[in-house]
């Protein structure tokens, strides 16, 4: 939750879809995060940003220029002021946003008016919120005049935005960022050994959950009471295994493959004179009881499919 005096930047990815989703989100009153927000569009340029990208695409096609696709349509700036200081009016927020764009244009040797025309500004007034701070969203096109302006997505723009934000707030509100004390002191990062220990504990818990689901599934195979229940348990095993497998970032770890081998052996288990070989997952106790001869288990599936769904 934004509480303090800050400027955050990020890239709006996934081309048109990502850009439209973000623009629509900013003005969606029905979102839970906007419960107390009074949303005002201060500079409506979302359509211009899309047109600027379309113009570049047409220009490159006309001139037989290959490649050069753009995935990040815009750079997002979020500018927030703490609730404990004087708050700008809507008109003052607009001046802050436009002055920021002016300084960004200057830092990138661009025409201010042109950059303003491809800069979408939305205010979220959180005066009614119990804890959230009011903040300004600025979306600046990464494309202008048929070119990708790399400087817009680089540190020079973030630096220019921070300086412009602090300067305009001081001029308009007589509030100095140098005299502001953050409401919350940032918590220091955990030592590496602590973070690793906590991660190992989480992985062990996921492995335990999978082990329990595996036992339930296998017991149902033995009892063969209800095919519907068996299918549900198989799906549950698959989901818990995928969760466990995805928690292991080191793909050289052979444990998931060993587990899959065991599961496949269970599915292809052969009965010989009412005896059954004892199988175990790594660190699993031998707990499988003999199967009845007439019981059959589904055939082996490929490993890729196994990772998505265990067959009952």
Write structural notes for this entry.
There is one protein chain. The protein is built from nine helices and seven strands; from the N terminus they run βαβαβααββββααααα. By secondary structure, the chain is α+β, with helices and mostly antiparallel strands. The protein folds into two domains: 6-179, BirA Bifunctional Protein, domain 2 (2-Layer Sandwich); 192-308. The strands form two sheets. Strands 1-3-5-4-2 form a five-stranded antiparallel beta sheet. Strands 6-7 form a two-stranded antiparallel ribbon. A hairpin with a 2-residue loop joins strand 6 and strand 7. Helix 3 runs antiparallel to helix 5 (155-173) and helix 6 runs antiparallel to helix 7.
Keywords:
312 residues; alpha+beta; BirA Bifunctional Protein, domain 2; 2 domains; two-stranded antiparallel sheet; 9 helices; 7 strands
In a few lines, what is going on in this structure?
This protein has helices at 15-26, 46-62, 90-107, 112-117, 155-173, 192-223, 227-246, 255-267, 303-308, and strands at 6-12, 38-43, 74-80, 119-125, 135-141, 143-144, 147-148.
What distance lies between the first and last C-alpha atoms, to the nearest angstrom? Answer: 45 Å
**Sequence stretches where pLDDT stays below 50 over 5 or more residues:** 270-279, 284-309
Our count of domains comes out at: 2
Q: Give the DSSP E fraction (strand runs of 2 or more residues).
A: 5-15%
Strand tally, please? 7
Helix/strand-derived category reads: alpha+beta
What's the overall geometry? extended
- SSE run: EHEHEHHEEEEHHHHH
- Percent helix among the residues? 40-55%
Task: Provide the gyration radius in Å.
Answer: 29 Å
What name does CATH use for the topology of the largest domain? Answer: BirA Bifunctional Protein, domain 2
Side by side, the strands of the main sheet go 1-3-5-4-2
Average pLDDT figure: 80
Number of helices: 9
CATH class of the largest domain: Alpha Beta
